[in-house]
Amino acid sequence: MVYIGIPTYDGRVHKNLANALQKATANRYPKTTSIITCSILTRAFNLLYAHALNERKNGTTHFCLLHDDVVPQPLWLDEMMRVMHKHQADVLSVVIPIKNEKGLTSTALDVGIGDEDPRWRVKRLTLREIYNEYQPTFTHEKLLVNTGLMLVDLQKPWVENVWFAFEDKIISDPKVPGDFKAVGVSEDWFFSRRARELGAKLYATREISVLHSGSADYSNSSMWGSLGEDAVNE
Question: Would the pTM of this model clear 0.85, i.e. be above it?
């Protein structure tokens, strides 16, 4: 059983998401879907994840987090399970572009960029890099994945020791003595770091096509974007 959790801020989801859920699988994998409304993003994620963990006693084996503005291709769940099994991944995350014209994604490498503190400023991968430099499904010892469409295998002990959290802090600005700046770690990268520490095998993939919908639809199914790589001032 796959537990699909959809967090929302105000109870609304993309108009095409219901159809995507209906066409998630060709009846290969039983699934249940839960939509939760909460203004605190990480709490919504944790409520869904905790429920999935509790449902293991009723046959749940996988947790899928799906954002309310991400619309995946038909049979997306079948494809994610195929890719996960092929690579023996513990966590499989679909590469999803950020909603702008730069082609940046929130799939990243946990390495510093420029002279920024690597804890707070990591290297995000662009679609151009992902298509030119990586296999369609790939891993890296420093991989940070996003949660827009993420599948977690719940059948190993480490899954009971991870959660979603924001880390926020105000630090001295090394470039401007006497000034301060706000920094943070997003919930997806917090989860990734924690899972990696516990030995989980994280993979990212572009083998599942999605649209990240906002004022326009941003697709991961081709190489596009104004940026070739992440930069300090982006």
Answer: yes
